[in-house]
Amino acid sequence: MPYRLQSDRTLEFVVPGRILRKGAPPNRFTREAEEKERLSAESYKNIIQSYAKTAAVQQGWDVKPEDAVYIVLSINLRPLRFRHGTKKFQTVTDTDAIKKKMACEHDPHLQRIVNLVLQSLDGLAYIHRRQVVGLLVVKRYFKMDALEILVGVANSWGVLNHDLRNA
Questions:
Q1: How many whole angstroms separate alpha carbon 73 and alpha carbon 136?
Q2: What CA–CA distance (Å, rounded) separates 66 from 106?
Q3: What is the pLDDT of residues 147-164, one digit of tens each?
Q4: Considering Cα of 113, then 118, then 124, then 126, what sign does the dihedral take?
Q5: Which residue has the higher pLDDT, 156 or 31?
Q6: Distances (CA, A) of 141 to 63, 64, 106, 150, 165
Q7: Cα torsion for 162, 163, 165, 167, to the nearest 10°?
Q8: Distance between CA 163 and CA 21 in Å, rounded?
Q9: Quick one: which of 22, 57, 77, 88 is 20 to 30 A from 103 by CA?
């Protein structure tokens, strides 16, 4: 995460690993129908909560009910590698090429990820959901899959606009 923020209190942590995708999980035929959704979403939410609790203890995070909170989510995706008739792999970072090659398996399910992050941070990073006044989701290509979460307290609208623009 960039460090060009004006907010004096921030909570930031990284959740490494594969991010929830739009495609079906690999072993979708071996589970029951209701277990698929519950297991994948609930387990990812628990992972986010454990990383958030650890980061809150390490960074001394404390929030009051009257604080305005903003959240920045950076979704890091590894660029896809495809074979094009030769033995060499070519890295593709073009969004249109990715959508042609892998229609829905590679794209993250952004709305689902945002809802899971808001549910998992409720009570940890903020007390009430109405405290969240800003939310920014950024998708970028990086060398490993991860979800970077930054939570900050905005003292004024100028701080909020500056931090959301520069995060």
A1: 6
A2: 39
A3: 999 998 888 887 777 777
A4: positive
A5: 156
A6: 32, 35, 12, 18, 19
A7: 150
A8: 28
A9: 88
